[in-house]
Amino acid sequence: MPRMVALCMVILVLVMLGSLRVTSGEHELPIARQRAECQAEPVRSHELTLGRTFGIVFDPGEDFFGTLATFCTTHNVRQGYIPMFLAAFAEAEIVGTCERISDPDAPLWSKVHLTNVEALGCGTLGYNPETERVLPHIHTSLGLKERSAVGHTSHLLSARVQFLVEMLLVEIATPTMLRTPEPSLYDIPLLRFG
């Protein structure tokens, strides 16, 4: 057993020094080159400094996005993320269609209307300085209670609370998280770090 451990350590050191090649099919690259190529990829990212953390409960009959906007205004939250929420919605609209999509690369704006659903979701909050509004980007999985909890998953467009929403919200102190339209992508509001 000690020999096996020693052999593994030697292999690990050789890989880290770039002396050993890792092969994948017909491509063979030294580890150092593989790392350099990975680092050359353009990824928009930024280290986040967390601010306050909130537990939020929405009441029956409330509008999901209206209540979230009121909370953000009241507590001066402009940016953050929602790691999770649990909900029972009387009705919800999500992005979806049963029709053929003419341009699969374009955003889909048609709606699927669902009623009497249980939901689990998450999302991000970005700020648009031009409109001075917090713009949530929420995705959710919804189960239709009267149809054996058949599920639908997509971008949440609207929802009305049936029983409750229990949400965790984490404010981001820095950097600024902006959500502004991207003209080259159908004016989809993309998250950017300031």
How would you describe this protein?
The chain is α+β, with helices and mostly antiparallel strands and 194 residues long. The chain has 2 domains: 2-39, no CATH class; 49-193, 2-Layer Sandwich (60s Ribosomal Protein L30, Chain: A), CATH 3.30.1330.80. It has 3 helices and 9 strands. The strands form 3 sheets. Strands 3, 4, 5, 6 and 7 form a 5-stranded antiparallel β-sheet that branches. The protein has a two-stranded antiparallel sheet with strand order 1-2. The model is unreliable at 4-36 (pLDDT under 50).
Task: Give a short summary of the structure.
With 194 residues, this protein is an alpha+beta fold.
Strand content: over 45%
Q: What is the CATH domain class of the largest domain? A: Alpha Beta
Which shape, going by the Cα principal axes? globular
**What's the CATH architecture of the largest domain?**
2-Layer Sandwich
Tell me about the largest β-sheet: 5 strands, antiparallel
Ranges where pLDDT stays below 50 over 5 or more residues in a row are 4-36
Query: Gap between N and C termini, in Å?
Result: 52 Å
Question: What class, by secondary structure content?
Answer: alpha+beta
**Nearest-integer average pLDDT:** 84
Query: Number of domains in the coordinates?
Result: 2
CATH topology category name of the largest domain: 60s Ribosomal Protein L30, Chain: A
* Rg calculated over all Cα atoms: 23 Å
Q: How many separate helices?
A: 3
Q: How many beta strands in the DSSP annotation? A: 9
User: N-to-C SSE series?
Assistant: HEEHEHEEEEEE
Q: What is the name of the CATH superfamily of the largest domain? A: Hypothetical protein, similar to alpha- acetolactate decarboxylase, domain 2
